[in-house]
Amino acid sequence: MFIKRGFNRGQVTIFIIIAIIIVAGIAGYFLLRNRITIGGLPTKFQPIEEYFVSCIKEQSDLGIMILGQQAGYIEVPDFKAGSEYRPFSSQLDFLGTPIPYWYYLSGNNIIKEQVPTKTKMQEQLNKFVKENLDCDFSQFRLQGYEISVNLKDVRTTINDNSVSISVSADLDIKLESEQGKQSSHKLEVQSNLGKMYQEALKIYNYEKQKAFLEDYAVDVLRLYAPVDGVEISCAPKIWLKENVDRDLKQALEANMGAIRLGRDKKYFVQNLDVSDSVNFLYSGSWPTRIEVWDANNGVMLAKPVGLQSGLGILGFCYVPYHFVYDINYPVLIQIYNNDELFQFPVAVVIDKNKQRTALPVTGVLDTVPELCKYNNKDIAVYTYNNNLNPVEADISFSCLSQSCDVGKTKLAGNDAKLEEKFPACVNGFIVARADGYADKKYMISTNEESVANIILDKKYDLDLDLKVNGASTTDFAIVYFDGENPFTLAWPDQKSVQLSEGSYNVSIYVYKKGGITIPGMNKEFCSDVPKSGLAGVLGITEEKCFNVNIPGQNLENVISAGGKSSEYFVESQLQSGKIEIRANSIKTPSSLEELQDRYNLVEASSIYIEFRE
Question: What element of type H or E holds 495?
């Protein structure tokens, strides 16, 4: 019996042929491997292509980093300067890097937004990579390679967690008799730029709608600065604005830095979900405007009530105060993801103690005061000093309750001149401001006049010496220079005054540590009030009495010297550099009635003013 085998001769032949083909293929690969192409280039040229792609990645990484650091811009928008009224320019200088504001107020108080779109970011990244793609192939040329690059186009797509880059460039490589060409180069760069940009938009729109940064600023204002209040005292209450500014800036730095985003129901946590870390930064060294409407040359003054004639019935003194603030400052919002950063600044605006109103989520706003929309009268403005030498000055125009920045007078020959269109207004004011000079208002009816010649008065810094009974005093005093450009000084914390030529009513009130104790008392007051019901409607009244409990007071400061004088200061006097004011003391009061009499005496007393070299 024969057993049939599993392989016949034909099958053996097929296996032999397959084996020959495999051996021939392996041999052919080793003989021709340098001639095989992968992706358009021979295998031996692949390191050059890989280097070119890494060069593209290096420039792309740099462009992505700049986009994050500069609020989505590689080429920042044109710089727009701020003004004394609005300190913001169009950019925040952060450690030498110009970062465009996403929201700010221009120098003429116009709301501006400059939020880049993702398309704009991609266009700038395309341009950056194309203009900066300069790869160094010297290491390959030393090996005998001939390399040329013809760059045609760059296209990028910013995704949430990556950036796709496609470069159209003819990469031609030649070595001896071999050559190759690659025209398309694609890569994917790992980056969270897209996601961080979307989170930045989310935070920005939340701030526009909620104005939460302004809410914190208002809280800081009321906690760290005098806004509203009453204190029991018979002497004025004084705050130096420079100290208030310092305290507010320090408090804003700390409070802005404490803000976080999340779901915790805590004061410093805002109800907004983001997946990355977020910081809110403010520095007191950044452009900041803190204006107190009731401050006079750095002095915030609250006067006592109860000493005025006819108010002795009160039986006590108190000092009420109410200060109105405008505060403008920048906050830099930073979004972190590992080593990546996306940051953008916004302006925080507090107007008359209140936060700004919510803004639309989309769209760019240009809110121009109604007056400034109709500039149709040609006016020439010239600005000079008292010697008729030209002085460059910032020019604004006000009419009724509105104001517009117009421009600046520029030196032209023997003049400082501005030719510009002004709004039509009867009895409006051109306001000229220049460093080192007092502000000057010039009344003009722009519908009739076409030229304004404005003379600016130079401001002089003078050291002040206050003497009582011929000797310099260290007692607390308030000195008023009431004129066209008033100045208030709190002695001895302030010992210099800034004055310009003009008429002044000078008043001095000197206070010394007191010792007056006003005892508490209970008084009954009676008055006629309408009767209830129909009788009251008919005008029938009845007497009702009520008790008023007045607490006792220990007065720390009482009036001790002072007086008044009316003077005209000429420029030659102000150039002396020193002003001496002399007053005489009065008898120290021992009761509230005497205290009121002493105030009346000071109002009638004279002081003596002398300028010294």
Answer: none
